[in-house]
Predict the structure.
Amino acid sequence: EPTRLLYTMLGAVGFVLLIACANVANLLLDRAAHRTKEVGIRTALGASRFAVVRQFLAEALILSVIGAVIGALIAQAGTTAFNRAIAGTQPPFFIDIRLHAPVLFFIAGVAVLTSLVSGFLPAFQSARADINEILKDESRGASSLHIGKLSRALVVFEVALSCGLLVAAGLMTKSVTKLRNIEPGFDVDNVFTARVGFPSTMTDTVRQRLFWEQLPDRLARIPGAQSTSVSSGLPGTNMGGTSIIPEGKSYERDQDRPRVRTLAVTPGFFDTFGMRVRQGRAFTLDDRFGSAPVAIVNQKFVETHFPNEDPVGRRFRIPFGRDSMTYRTIVGVVGNVFTGDNEEPWAASIFMPFAQAPSNFASMAVRTQNAPLSLTTHVREAVASLDADLPIYWVYTMRQQLERSLWFVRVFGTMFMIFGIIALFLAGIGLYAVMAFSVSRRTREVGIRMALGAKTRDVVRLIFRQGMLQLTAGLSLGMALAYGVSRLITFILFDVQPRDPIIFGGVAAVLAAAGLLACLVPAIRATSVDPNIALRAD
């Protein structure tokens, strides 16, 4: 999943880069349009098409190099700020973001590539322009027509990319908002947690069984401990998974078997995490190794497998391991618990007695009224009193554990929001630039229309119509792109539908508003044109 996440972020950065390239290309197209007569004169005096192309590409390369240097400085400041921002979220050890030499070489390569991408279109258009038309009348040059079409096409491209990125940002924003208000189904306050385990090569099951049996009692002796538990994992973080076969049912293929989340827990687990047994009973010390296999299930499990039935007393088996043919009897039901999985946050779950499903590694939890981490020394001593060779690790409060399991959604969700704002800004600037360029190229036309009696609203309507056509085309393509992007980021979304109509509609409204605003200034400028001056314009 970290690899998928990083590739997703790389894709978001690529979207912003493409939007920036389109903006630069538009600016260079505008500059090329204003230099058509200069290019025509140089070509007429003997300059080759290659020389014209080389000049435009050189200018684009200089801009890209300057941008890359400034960008590298911003990136250095950004990575420093990013590392500081995530320090409190307890990120995984492999997250180490710095500007390494390969990154700088990559930046240099991107600078060259973007200069070629951004500079090629204006260079190509200028080189292929009709010299005779340009020298006759710059404002009627054939190049102007082609440049105008290209410029408008680039704006459509920008709006489409921005739409896709903004939808992703909106979905991530909604995910982060839901995460901040999550009710995980268990109490995360005042709970100390840590991990302990035996080497995977250890096969002395008697020694391990005695250790796990005595550990809860040793933890309960810690001053300030109110309740304690030992479990295969912690709720909301590292719950396991398996497939099951309810009694009386059969499946032709293994993949058809329903899957559930699993935790093996000691009797004090539910008290430690404030989980009330709604139906049936909790585990007791009698649910030990060699006794009848039992299980407690959550409400989602009941709704999925035993709707409108009393689940207590019903049975299922786990078709793996040496007890694959042994059925477990359901003795209790608890509420739904957050699994820690973004794609399936409230999955069907089962809890088994730890003594009946032991493992080499387990998580300890101690509820206390004191500061949870103040128990660290006591817990370490309790473990050492049973086996001095076993260290404890991953020492956190339960709230910190939950935050660690969800840090990537919060952090990268915020980054998506930032990318979305940048994309919206760039798309708005791009549309404004094209509209301003269009108005400047149509100064004489506007002057003639106003001299012939056109009203202000007619001129505004003319300018807005052109902008709305580009915006509509861009939004149409963008919504299709956004649909594909939303499916790609499903794995990182938390309790949010990838085709959320509110997000899609909101993005369309925001882009439409930004487009209208980008058209407003050029439209107002067009209405302020003095017909006498406009008729004398080149």
Remarks:
- The mean pLDDT is 82.
